[in-house]
Amino acid sequence: MKHRIAAGAIIEREGKILMVRHCKPEIYDFWVAPGGGAIDDEPLADAARREVLEECGLRVEVGQLAYVEEFASPETRECKFWFIGALQGGEIDCGAEQATREHIVEAAWLSRDDFAGKTVFPPMLLSDYWRDREQGFTAPRYVGLRRMAFY
Fold it and tell me: Is the entire prediction scored with pTM above 0.70?
């Protein structure tokens, strides 16, 4: 089994979260906050920042660690660190080679209501995130292990 360490950023602007859509027809279609695997000895915050740039063309500042999530498929066990980020600049563009290789077809700012009818990851964005944000993310929270729905 392959093990992977990853980082992502939850970036909110005007009540909307930056999300990317991974779509491989007949296989999967889901929305997720940008993120991905750390490369070699890359610090996790740097990995989150790089992944946002690669997947959506935006520059962000990465702040506090909010969640630690584990997930598994038959081939991979992954530990992902979700940071709170802030937009610094750029224009949404998911045309980079790294994004197209991952079947990222769209990036958008989605409100909580926009999540209705969509498959959304990480699952905390559907409920806990909004409460945790109001409480100020007092400490990073381990959210457990989930089985991957798509891989």
Answer: yes
